[in-house]
Amino acid sequence: MQLRSSRLPVLLVLGSMAVVVCGLLRPMAGPLTANAGKGGSNPKAAPRTSVGLTVTPLPDWFHLQSSDTVNGWINDLDNKSITAHAWELWGALTTLTDQELNGQKVPIYETWWDAKEALSSAPRATAAPRRGRQFERPRQFEHLEKARARAAITAERPPETLFDDVKYNDDIKQFIANNKYNNHQELDRINNSWGKTKPVAER
To answer: Is 167 exposed, middle or buried (0-12, 13-18, 19+ CB in 10 A)?
Structure first.
């Protein structure tokens, strides 16, 4: 398995007591540097989300390893280094900021953009911030329910009790906007440009 990850376009999915972090697959742009808040200093005015939180990068002490390094660990079956780096990333994501939501300090990842904010192509209208979290039902449950219905299998736990919270950091939000990946016409153009014969793995 080969990884080609950027500085950190990071996609965070929080659900059922688990967090999954994935780098956006694209050529390496350089090492990750984080600089925010308790997490560092940013010379530019930091944007604010619809919840009213200031978007905060990862703390200064964390550095995302290069794709060459990570792929080296994978090829060498170096589980110790992989696990250590995963815990470092977890620690960076969950570092508490000085910002509060409903009276509680929030971790860095909670200051990031919701999916609707990151993927919207329309300018964000200025409005009074909502002071609550937006949890959604994971889309994969829809596929699971259809499969179970076809097999006449009853779920052990009602899926309606499980929710997730998807977050995008500012790098990936800007990457999406700059490349118009929030525009269906652009996505269709890119998809059609590959032709029907090019293997999916090479696109």
So the answer is: buried
Could you tell me the pLDDT band of residue 58, with boundaries at 50, 70 and 90?
Answer: very high
**Cβ atoms within 10 Å of 92's Cβ, excluding its own:** 25
**Where exactly are the structural domains of the chain?**
5-202
Please tell me the distance from the alpha carbon of residue 182 to that of residue 18, in angstroms, as a whole number.
Answer: 27
DSSP, collapsed to helix, strand or coil, labels residue 68 as helix
Please give the full DSSP string across 133-202, using - where no structure is assigned: ---B--THHHHHHHHHHHHT---SS-GGG--EEEEE-HHHHHHHHHTTTT-HHHHHHHHHHTTTTS-GGG
Q: Model pTM greater than 0.90? A: no
158-189: pLDDT as tens digits = 656 667 778 999 999 999 999 999 999 999 99
Q: How far apart are CA 50 and CA 71, in angstroms?
A: 37
DSSP H helical segments within 2-103, as ranges?
A: 67-75, 79-93
> What's the N-to-C CA distance of the chain in angstroms?
16
